[in-house]
Design brief:
Layout (H helix, E strand, L loop, with lengths): L3 E3 L11 H5 L9 E5 L3 H10 L5 E6 L24 H10 L3 H7 L3 E4 L4 E5 L2 E2 L8 E4 L2 H13 L4 E5 L1 E9 L5 E9 L8 E3 L2 E4 L7 H7 L7 E5 L3 E8 L8 E4 L8 E8 L3 E8 L9 H9 L5 H7 L2 E2 L4 E3 L4 E4 L11 E3 L5 E2 L7 H21 L7 H23 L6 E2 L4 H17 L3 H11 L11 H9 L4
Parallel strand pairs: 2-3, 2-12, 3-8, 5-15, 12-21
Antiparallel strand pairs: 1-9, 4-7, 5-6, 9-10, 10-11, 13-20, 13-23, 14-17, 14-18, 14-19, 15-16, 16-17, 20-22
Helix pairs in contact: 2-5, 2-9, 3-9, 9-10, 11-12, 11-13
Bound molecules: flavin-adenine dinucleotide.
The site of flavin-adenine dinucleotide has 36 residues, from helix 2, strand 3, strand 9 and helix 9.
Amino acid sequence: MRSLFVYPLFMSVSTLSPFVQDTAASTQARRHAVVLGGSIAGLLAARVLLDHFGQVTLLERDQFPAQPATRAGVPQGQHVHGLLLQGQQILEQLFPGLIEDLTQAGAIPLDWIADWQVFSLEGWLEQHDSGLRGLCCSRLLLEWHLRQRLLNNDRFHLRPGCSAQGLVFQSQPNPRITGVMLRSAADGPDQPSISADLVVDATGRHSKLPRWLAAAGYEKPPETQVNSFLGYASRWYRRPTDAIAKGVMIVAKPGESTRGGVLYPVEGDRWIVTLSGIAGDHPPADEAGFLAFAQSLRHPMLYDLLKISEPCSPIHCYRRTENQWRHYEQLSATPRGVVALGDAVCCFNPAYGQGMTAAALGAMTLQRCLSKANQTPQPVDWEQRFQYQLAQTLNTPWLMATGEDFRWPSTEGKRPVWLSRWLQGYFDRILRLSLTSSEAHRAFIEVAHLVKPPIRLFTPTILWRALTEPLR
Ligand SMILES: Cc1cc2nc3c(=O)[nH]c(=O)nc-3n(C[C@H](O)[C@H](O)[C@H](O)COP(=O)(O)OP(=O)(O)OC[C@H]3O[C@@H](n4cnc5c(N)ncnc54)[C@H](O)[C@@H]3O)c2cc1C
């Protein structure tokens, strides 16, 4: 007999839905995956799971707006969300035609070098037509389009207003997850769980999966944190019709200013302006304070553009910006039938724009692991392999984000190894070279956008110039 134990409530097999009881005999087409969290990571995971499971259900505790609009579960939606080129490519691969749809909806195509005016640590970066074509839009528009695409699939079931409360564990014959405990106003108390052959946790930074695992007698994943005490304040503006600038970025500089700002073009002829302050020097939420903060940046360009633009939103603040990595890949024992990805595993200081792309890389890792597992006739324990491979994809963005954060002496957390400190010094030289060398600038953007590995910055010409050109 199977013994079942359940967190947080104890329940019997009979309360499980038919999916679980069918599983042993079911065909691939009848298998059921449940995704927790309906934000970017959850939507991308759901898209991948549709290739491998007969039915995919997504549980999201928020109600979804009918139009692209903010919602409580993702307060970061009011802030600039840059989509890196790697993320853009994966999204288009998973949802062919998405870029065109977003463009039709008002997203702004631009060249990441020609159309961005960046006041870097060393001054204005050179601009040239690079062919590195990106798309700028709000996170609200992007999430809405991903959701609509999934809703076109009748094997995809969206359950808004439905909060995951715990996991259903089966301990015999092998420990595994067989479902999710949930709370939903629509269902009332009669349907406390949904069964699943696979549960994907995409509930973000505040994921309770470690707690659920611990309550069932498993280890919690070890956690690494690096905190530069960055704070954001953002406001949306109407873009003046005669504005020439597309995107502007003024970067904070250690020893000179803890303050930075981005002016980011989005749909509806608007700009999102995000001001940021490191080391606790946070931008305020009141109008006068916001403008004064913008005026205090290292260069006046952003403030000058704000002065001629009409605000069209309140000012929104955000403070939880620490890098945080839950190392599921280091656990020696985990139950089968559950994996985690997106911010639930690793969130980054948002200033480097990596979170959505890391979620996309996680979805592609899931795709690869499931494809491989499905080729094997015997059931294989692929979940732990997935967490391990996911960790491999997170290494580079983690080192880039935390390496940047450790420029600031006030940053707290586990310091990087000597190699990444050396790399940071080398990146500084590349940045300096990017003021004058279009080749170095392009290579830097490719690495920062995760389309090329850091080795791209070590071609003979770039290496020679980076090491031999005198420091200014
Ligand atoms: C201020 C800020 C700015 C950012 N800027 C960028 C950027 O420029 N570029 C970039 O790529 N990334 C950026 N990010 C990161 C990006 O927002 C996330 O990495 C990305 O959205 C993926 O997150 P996620 O889907 O894993 O989690 P989240 O976006 O946090 O979503 C988690 C979802 O799970 C739901 N949920 C939570 N608990 C439950 C539960 N128990 N049951 C059901 N549902 C639940 C929540 O309601 C939410 O919808 C930024 C983040 C912040 C905070």
